[in-house]
Each structure stands twice: as C-alpha cells, then as structure tokens.
Amino acid sequence: MRARVYVTLKPSVFDPQGRVVADALVTLGYGDVKDVRQGKFFEVELDGADPATANLSAEAQRAKAETRVTEMADKLLANPVIESYRVEVLE
Amino acid sequence: MKFSVVVFPGSNSDYDAFYAASRVVGEDAALVWHKDTDLQGADVVILPGGFAHGDYLRTGAIARFSPIMGAVKAFADRGGPVLGICNGFQVLLEAGLLPGAMVRNDRVKFVSQLVPVRVEQTDTPFTAACASKQVLRLPIAHGEGNYYAPPEVLAEIEARRQVVFRYSSPSGEVSDAYNPNGSLNSIAGICNRERNVVGLMPHPERASEAQLGSADGRLVLASAVKWAAEGMLRHA
Lengths: 91, 236
Description:
- The structure holds two protein chains of two kinds.
- By secondary structure, chain A is α+β, with helices and mostly antiparallel strands.
- Chain A has two helices and three strands, in the order βαβαβ.
- Chain A has a three-stranded antiparallel beta sheet, with helices on one face.
- The termini of chain A are close together.
- Chain B is α/β, with parallel strands linked by helices.
- Chain B has a single domain, classed as CATH 3.40.50.880.
- Chain B is 21% helix and 24% strand.
- In chain B, strand 3 (44-47), helix 2 (68-77) and strand 4 form a beta-alpha-beta unit.
- Chain A binds chain B through residues 9, 12-17, 19-20, 76-77, 79, 81-82, and chain B through 57-58, 61, 94, 100-101, 103-108, 146, 148-150, 182.
C-alpha cells in the first residue's frame, strides 16, 4: 500500500521561497500568478504483508494505513508548529 | 566545571565551541559523539552550529533522534544548562525543548555577518555575566533563522520573559531595519520556562577573542561559569 503526504507552510506563515518563485513566474510573463506556496511531497510505501493487518478487510487496511501515515506526518514529516499536511492513501 | 559539546554528523562549530570553552574561558571541555548516551559528567551542554544530518527534512529534524538527545533531554529536565547555538537552537526547537520553529530567512538569502544583539534577560545561565540591555556584536551565519511561533505562543514567551536576545542597532534600538532574517519580534534567542535551556542563532563561540572581530561572545560562556560560581547549578 502506498500513501502520499503533502506538506505546506500554514497560511499564517510567510513563505519566502514561494514568494520568490511567484515573482520569477511573473517575470517569465505569467502575469496572472498571484501567489505560490512551496511545499514538500512524500510517497510512503507500506508493507502489505504486515501480519497485524493481513486479516483485515481492504477498507479496514486502508483506514489503518491512513491513521498510521497521519501519525507519521504529525510526528516527523511535518512540523505542526509551522506546517499543515494532507494524507492520501493509494491502493 | 565541564562543558560537553555534542558532535552531530554535519556539525561545524563543534571545535569552535570546544576551543572557546577550554582555551578562552579556560574550563574543562569534551566533545561527545551523537551516538553516545553519556554526557561525560557535563555541567553545561552545548549543541553546536552546523548542518546536523545535512539538514535533511528540516533543520534539526533528524538530530532529535540521535541517541545522545535522550541524555540531553534528561539533563535539561534536571535543570542542567543547555545552550543551542544556531543549528543547535534549531535542534532544540525540533526536539520540543524550546517553543516555536524556524523558517527560511525572509529575504531567502543565507546571511553571514557580524550583527548587534541586545541582551534582554540576565537571569539565565548564558547571560548572567552580561548587563541588562547590553549590546553584543556577534556573527550570524544561517539560511533558516527566521523565528516563528503562533501568536498565542509568542505572547506567552514574551509575557514570561523568555526572549533572551534580540537583533538591534549598535545602540540597542530594536526595529525591522535591524532584523536580518524576519524573525518575529526581532527574536535572536529564547529560553525555556525554567530558563536553563537557551537557544540563539548568533555564534558567541566564533566571537570570543578580539582577533576574531569581536570578543563579546566570551560573555555567553563566561556567564555559565559565573552561574556555577554563584551556586546556581541545580542539576547535580
């Protein structure tokens, strides 16, 4: 099972890199660019053969994966003081 | 007394801190590898500057998993003085030993310069030898020194007098014009509630002798010696 985690700075936190990228896009002629927020993207591969989840239904496995990856995002992949995250579980 | 300087893979100010503690301040000092779990009888712990673990993920994010950090946390919990310099400050933030976080400098540039830094609080182990509102000339060298804390946390650390250093003008005036990285409230360094853990972005150890451009940083480590001499060490 695979999961994707998208991490971005919270809206209340100024993103200097995103600002520079937005300015560069405008310089390139994309005058309609109003703002860019730069973030991080993680692909997490989980071992489907985990005996703890092998007997669960596909739906329950998915829910369990989502809980675990959310926990990972909260504990390590994102710094919750400044960043927010979104978790997507794929088959 | 003994200063233990933690060496992470990627630390680059570890020997500077060791030198400042042992040769300039003249106390015992040890370098402690991050995989060790023993602080070698430290009276003071220094987390030095550099790029621990290559700053992978976020600055300081991986260093908090180094085995030595368990001992550092236990030492801090007992009231032992811990100083995080630059990357060491970032490690303390990621480890939750200090509140807030660092984001990229507001002008997105790595800043390397000698800046005036105003001492806001003198009742910490690393400012006890300074005068209140004394302006120190200290070097900064960082790309992510833009201190951020959510509004309620910022209000709390201000109310509890946890802001220990602020960027200022040479005469001690604090304003955006003298803020090199966009830090909220011009914060250059803070302490925890108990005041024994201090983190700052400037490098006192790199400004501890006149031939380095400034000797003001010596006061930061000398403060710990004064603190100990006054019987303020409580961790033993």
